[in-house]
Prior knowledge:
Elements: E1 2-4, H1 12-21, E2 26-29, H2 33-39, E3 45-47, E4 59-63, H3 72-80, E5 86-90, H4 103-117, E6 121-123, E7 126-127, H5 139-145, E8 147-151, E9 156-157, H6 162-174, E10 184-185, E11 191-192, H7 193-204, E12 209-213, H8 215-224, H9 229-241, H10 253-256, H11 263-269, H12 271-274
Amino acid sequence: MIVVTGATGTVGRHVARGLHERGHDVVAVSRDPDRAASLLPSGVRCATVDDVDWSAAGGLFVNQAAFPDGVGDLLDAAVARGHVERVVALSTYTVLDDDPRNAIATRHRAMESCVRAAGVDWVLPRPAGGFASTALEWSKEIRETRTVQAPYGDAEGAPIHEQDIADVCVAGFEDDTLVGTAPMFSGPASLSYRERARTIGEVLGEPVEFIELDDAAARERMTAVGVPPHAVEARLRMFAALVGVQHEVHDSAPFTGHAPRTFRDWVEDHRDAFA
């Protein structure tokens, strides 16, 4: 049995579905099991973390976003008091940034340390280049005004389709050669935020204008939609550093066995969010 945490999240739902489709017995963990059940195949069992029978679990997918206070208690229940033998924990390439102001990197380094210290097989997928799904933050604005207001339009990344992230995580449970590694992968091409807005417009068949904001205006907008202050500052520093810099591309195909999905693929898969 594999326990998937954060099972209603952007990546977690695809991990749960992917494992189920490959024949694994999956328990999806969510604060709202009824909602999880509505999003996942009928063969996936849904539970709160307190209701999991860890004695029956052999694998655990960790999404730190579901555990703001850290994953120590989760790993204690799953490993020290349970029978989990492999942990696949979604991390980020920003762990390589040792700037103490980078709270995202600091939290994920702490998570990685906990996983390595748990004494079981581990895989730490490190997406690089950003999630394509962050463009959903623009969805309401694009629907209503066909514009995007955001900072640093010429900052570049290599946006990754969440399905590709999930596919790497699923491989972490099935490919023994990945044990003890932190596979880094990105989307297939470096794109600026301005180019992403243009791509959305092309898929919609209507132009989407990118309107660049200064830091103060961007900070206000991100805070208003619930982005935590530490994440706001980390994003702004990251965006500023990436202006005009082509993002290095790391192929996910060696881990997934298929070509990575493009940002245009992602937009076409989520077209209804912007139409």
